[in-house]
């Protein structure tokens, strides 16, 4: 995996720690990039979590769809295929969205 230039802690071990945390997010739950970073021991590295997720292989089994931004919104543009895919996966797990397209993280937070 290519590592993100500019991050002081961008080692394969850190990427593995992030993926290990994401792999533990239970069915029907969601969390933020920042919470993943914090649980991986990398507080302040929310953008690095996004970078790791953007570079996952297409057929990954990592439940990437359970990670959203701190406002409970999907980070992909709402008219994109990835947005629709992430939302559909979350809804299939029972996660509901507000009319504005946000998830109430206090309800679904892991």
From TrEMBL:
Keyword Cell membrane part of the UniProt annotation: no
GO biological process, one term: DNA repair
Record keywords, A-Z: DNA damage
GO molecular function: catalytic activity
CDD domains: ATase (cd06445)
Domain Methylated-DNA-[protein]-cysteine S-methyltransferase DNA binding: residue ranges: 15-95
Pfam family, one: DNA_binding_1
Protein name in the entry: MGMT family protein
Organism: Alkalimarinus sediminis
């Amino acid at each position: 995996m290519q590592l993100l230039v500019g991050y002081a802690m961008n080692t394969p071990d850190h990427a593995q720690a992030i993926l290990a945390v994401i792999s533990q997010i239970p069915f029907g739950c969601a969390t933020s990039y920042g919470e993943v970073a914090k649980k991986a021991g990398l507080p302040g590295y929310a953008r690095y979590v996004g970078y790791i997720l953007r570079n996952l292989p297409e057929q990954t089994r990592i439940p990437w769809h359970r990670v959203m931004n701190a406002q409970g919104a999907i980070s992909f543009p709402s008219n994109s295929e990835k947005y629709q895919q992430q939302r559909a996966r979350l809804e299939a797990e029972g996660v509901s969205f507000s009319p504005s397209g946000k998830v109430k993280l206090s309800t679904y937070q892991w």
